[in-house]
Amino acid sequence: MIDWLASADDVLRARGEWGSAPIDRRRLARLVFLLLVFGLFYGLVMGCYDGGHRARLTQALYSALKVPLLLAATFALSLPSFFILNTLLGLRDDFRYTMRAMLATQAGLTIVLASLAPLTAVWYASSTSYDMAKLFNAMMFGVASIAAQFLLRRHYAPLIRKRPAHRWMMYSWLVIYSFVGVQMAWVLRPFLGAPGMPTQFFRDNSWSNAYVHISDVIWRVLTGG
Amino acid sequence: MIRGFKQLDDILRGNATSPPSLGKGQVDLRVGGLTLVVILLGGICGLCIGSFAVIRTAWSDTGVSQDAIMQMLASVVKLPLLFIFTLLVTLPSLYVFNALVGSRLSLSSVYRLLVAMLGVMLAVLASLGPITVFFGLSTDSYPFMKLLNVAMASVAGVLGLAFLLRTLHRLVTLQEPSISDEIVPTEREAADSGPDEDPPRRSSHGVLDRMGPTPVKARVVFRIWLLVFSLVGAQMSWVLRPFIGNPDVPFTWLRSRQSNFFMDVLESIGKLFGN
Predict the structure, then answer these.
(1) How many whole angstroms separate alpha carbon A94 and alpha carbon A34?
(2) What is the ipTM of this complex?
(3) How close A114 gets to chain B, by Cα (Å)?
(4) For the whole prediction, is pTM greater than 0.90?
(5) Rounded to the nearest 10 degrees, what angle do helices B129-137 and B142-174 cross at?
(6) What is the pLDDT of residues B229-246, one digit of tens each?
(7) Which of B7, B12, B146 to mutate to test the interface with A (most CBs of A within 10 A)?
């Protein structure tokens, strides 16, 4: 177990087998393990928001499950189109290396998130505002996403050196993944649980569209409506 | 059917349109199984697009309506038809233009090439299907779904047409001896080029890789044809609408002839932001 957790360092540095070897069953298991452990950890901390009342254990457990679920479901939905695009660009033979790069990035994202969890805990200890807590968590996810993007570049670097077309695939992965990820995060809300609202895994109106919501907000801001 | 999927895989990987395969100026594909795969993939895409109508009513108080099920079935039938009709409408002009720019492709080769292109388009569209269903599950905005499907069909269309354009370029350049000498080095030339860089660059080509200059005349003609294909495809989708099914309008197999594809896209953008 300790050995598996220690591989987190190598994943972050894209070092050794994590920087060059293709994905296989053992590496896949390790990356999924890292994603689960660190994702659950950050989710647990994120769900401990109490808003000045008692923290809700059920909400913390829901949030803990939701972080790995968010990443895994987004990954699964984005993968088929990415696979076909790679094939079209003649990069199919490298796909096991690409999978390693992408999965390592997913795991790396949760590692970064977990490293930010103490900051989130301190924030909760110093402010009870729900909006500020939401904003802070959004910032943490933003920081982790930016860090993960650098990690993806690091893992992709040998592939791009080998075939420059990988660069376009890397960008297209970022576009597909973020497009699906934003909506997945919207569907899986609440991650914190507003004070006064009942603890639920999904909100009653959670099956709505983030982009329609955003366009409504933009329209209202522009028209002053 | 399995052979058809194998062929589609060869097309996507670029094996079917690699320079040695196109060396004789012919497209060596058996289209029987591939046509079935294209129809099957079209049906799957139609199912993903039409599922919005069923999903939308499934969670309402009245339950799944007959109209919604009919809409989904209609989309399963109409989506393959959309691609097949577009192919039939544009096949003659591609063949004629192709002959005009000096390609020796026969009509059956042009047909095989177009079926291969539909395979590429539908493989991309079907691979985006899970995302379409996911958004169908999580939105009730009809304009959003229309725009999402137009965007996804555009991505699939661009990639399919890029495949066709590259393959046509390869066919024309491979028939020009001076150019083919440049782009297909002999074994001796390859051996003389010195040791590979580290890490080694792959020698195989992707299906969308450019492989050499194309005569200007051919390039212009192919681009015009691509424009024609895109316009015909877009308008054909308008003629065969509805694919998603407006929730406020009862089910019909085809709508009346009015407006056009591009006006409707603009209206949908207006509705998405205006409401």
Answers:
(1) 23
(2) 0.72
(3) 28
(4) no
(5) 170
(6) 888 888 888 888 888 888
(7) B12
